[in-house]
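sorry for the late reply, my laptop died twice this morning and i had to redo everyting from scratch. anyway the thing you sent over, i finally got around to it. pasting the sequence first so we're on the same page, its 330 residues, then the predicted structure underneath. double check i copied it right bc i was rushing
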Amino acid sequence: MKYYMADSRGAIRCSSEKEKLTGKKQKEQLEKTTEFFRQCLSKTGIQTAEDYFSTAIQPNGEYDGLMYFTKMQIDSSAEILKQKIGFQNGDYKTSSAERAVFDSIFEVRENGRPCWYLLYGNWILLKRNLFDNQWITVQREQPVVYQQFISSIQKNAYVKGKNESRNSIYLLSKKEIKNPDLLLQEAVMQEQSDKMTDKIIAFYAKSVLNGADNFSNDKSAFFYRLTKEKPAPDEVYQSFKEMKYFLKRQTDTIVFLHYEGSDLIWKGNNQHLRFHVCKNGRFNIYGIFYEKEELKQQIAARMPFQRKEWYQSLMPFFEEQRYIQERKER
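ok and here's the structure:
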């Protein structure tokens, strides 16, 4: 099935022109970005090991990622440390969430003295345009305590033929992420890391991703669904008859409703609304899909129709060619 997609700059293209994604290309892109972030951290005074950032991809999703670990020092008198010791001694009952925190607190010796750190896992996520595979957004996820972080990676690990969901991840780097002693040696203090990483992300977004269309994948998903749910001519006519009768009852006036292709166009009572008719009595208005009864309830309640933030940018395209169909030359 061919449909239209938006590339990373927002240009509308045919899905048959979609660029093939390869693991090699993803790896090369991530290696360059990893080095960019490492150099930026170095300029802020934070020195990191060459493998500080680990790389990961979603083979069937839309995100690539940089994984790294940070730590927060726990005072020897802190209540959470007392609770951890109490739990180990069997004197304190805990929830699974608390247990994950306790299991992420590690003792190390510094200058001959014991110190305690809470270890965190972190992601910098790069959203990939689904047409040309160029990144369109970058964001830092909130840190997650180490045990919970590792469990999530194991749960979502990409396994061909077994776990190939959109959310499954494949680690490209071979870092020993199950070795907390090693990770603690390399980890940067959490507060310092967050502050500097946010600055680098803002700089990267402005200098590298400037001009990218943040909503391009949303537009592609919309086009795909609109094409997949294109109705048969008789469904359009049945929807036209039913909506005309319904609108007349609601407004108690002459209803100026007609249809063009798969669209119903309603004019009257200061209204000018275009409904895209979809299969099985569904409708699309301003990028939002409604079941028939949902649409009727909204009209009856005289509620204004919400508009997807990205929908307005598609209007020039719809003015020229409203219906998703194969180009004549293909």
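The longest strand covers residues 113-128.
thats about all i looked at so far, will dig more tmrw
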